Amino acid sequence: MERSGFYHLDEFGVKNYHLKALLITSILTMVMLCTGLGYLTYLFEVGAEGANVTNYAEAVWLMLMSASTIGFGDFYPVTLGGRIVSVVMFSLGVGILGGIGAMFATRMFGFSDTNVKNRELRKQNAEILEKVTALEAKLDRLLQQKQ
């Protein structure tokens, strides 16, 4: 049994995702990463020679820009620690923001409708299989009666 609440299984074993729960979790994860990694960046960068990240807000801004891979260039890390944290944010942020974008695309362009159609087809196939099985049983009985 799936306990996270992110999806449930229908009668055909198809995972049906709860996009609202995934979206909220993704956004909260993104906020926690930006604030947490922003704090680490701030610790590495503050007081470093040539550093242009001089306060926590600038460090969080750097993490947001790193996550989106925009990187305006107004703030950038100059220490090895700050650069490592930025690379981590690049890697994690792209995945999270890409997932959020995919959720919006699914809702906007109706990709989830395909899942609904697949479930309907599976249900129809199950009904057809049941009828074919019943007909085969009737044919078998008729053939046995003729013999």
TrEMBL record:
Record keywords: Coiled coil, Ion channel, Ion transport, Membrane, Transmembrane, Transmembrane helix, Transport
GO CC term (a single one): voltage-gated potassium channel complex
Transmembrane portions of the chain: 21-44, 56-77, 84-105
Record membrane topology: Multi-pass membrane protein
Gene3D superfamilies from the UniProt entry: 1.10.287.70
Example of a GO MF term: voltage-gated potassium channel activity
Coiled coil: 118-145
Cross-referenced PANTHER family: POTASSIUM VOLTAGE-GATED CHANNEL PROTEIN SHAB, VOLTAGE-GATED POTASSIUM CHANNEL
Protein name as annotated: Two pore domain potassium channel family protein
Annotated source species: Ferrimonas lipolytica
